[in-house]
Specification:
about 180 residues; Arc Repressor Mutant, subunit A; about 70% helix
C-alpha cells in the first residue's frame, strides 16, 4: 500500500496523480483514500466534502499548469508571454487530459458558487498577468490602444483565443502571435 499521506498538499498531489492516470471521474473521497493508503475519514479531516476536494484539486491543477517559471524573461514582452502560455496549455492538456474541455468549461455550468468563483479567480490571475505584460512591453506602439481597444480588452481577447485553443487542443501559437504583432507592434 502507498505511503500514508499526512498533509493536504500530499492529498492534492495524489489527487493530481489519479487524474493523470485515470481521468477526472476518479477524483472522489473513496478512491483518493485508497490511493493515499488512509481511511475515508482521514480525507475528511482535510476536505469537508467531495466538492471541497474537487475544488482544491482544480486549484492545484491550475497552479501546476501555470506556476511561475524560473525564467521570468517569458514575461518581458507579449509575444514571449503568449508563446509561454500556449506551451503551458499544451503541457496541461498532456498532463491532465480533459481538464480544459471537460472540467474547466463544465465547472462554469455547475451550480456551485465555489467552483465558479475559483474559475473566475484563476482566469483573472491570467488576465491580470497578460494586462501587466501589455503595459510594460516597450515594443508596444504608443498608439496601439484606444478608447475601444484598451489593454484590458486586448488581454480579454488574447485569453479568449487561448481558451479556444485549449478546447480545440491546437497549441500552434503562430496565428495569435501574428494578431499580436499586427495589432499592437
Amino acid at each position: 500500500m502507498n505511503t500514508v499521506v499526512t498533509s493536504k498538499e500530499e492529498i492534492l498531489k495524489k489527487s493530481r496523480e489519479l487524474i493523470q492516470k485515470n481521468g477526472w471521474a476518479t477524483v472522489n473521497i473513496r478512491s483518493l483514500a485508497a490511493a493515499c493508503g488512509v481511511s475515508v475519514g482521514s480525507i475528511y479531516n482535510y476536505f469537508e466534502s467531495k466538492s471541497a476536494l474537487v475544488s482544491a484539486t482544480v486549484e492545484s491543477v491550475w497552479e501546476d499548469i501555470f506556476h511561475r517559471p524560473d525564467d521570468v524573461s517569458v514575461f518581458a514582452d507579449v509575444l514571449s508571454s503568449v508563446k509561454w502560455m500556449f506551451g503551458r496549455l499544451e503541457y496541461g492538456c498532456e498532463r491532465y487530459p480533459g481538464f480544459f474541455t471537460h472540467h474547466s468549461l463544465g465547472f462554469m455550468q455547475q451550480d456551485t458558487e465555489d467552483g465558479k468563483r475559483q474559475m473566475r479567480q484563476a482566469w483573472q490571475h491570467i488576465l491580470d498577468e497578460l494586462r501587466a505584460v501589455l503595459l510594460r512591453d516597450g515594443k508596444v506602439r504608443p498608439d496601439a490602444f484606444t478608447a475601444d481597444l484598451t489593454p484590458d480588452a486586448f488581454a480579454q481577447a488574447l485569453f479568449s483565443l487561448m481558451l479556444s485553443a485549449a478546447v480545440r487542443q491546437d497549441f500552434d501559437s503562430s496565428a495569435v502571435l501574428e494578431i499580436v504583432h499586427r495589432t499592437i507592434y
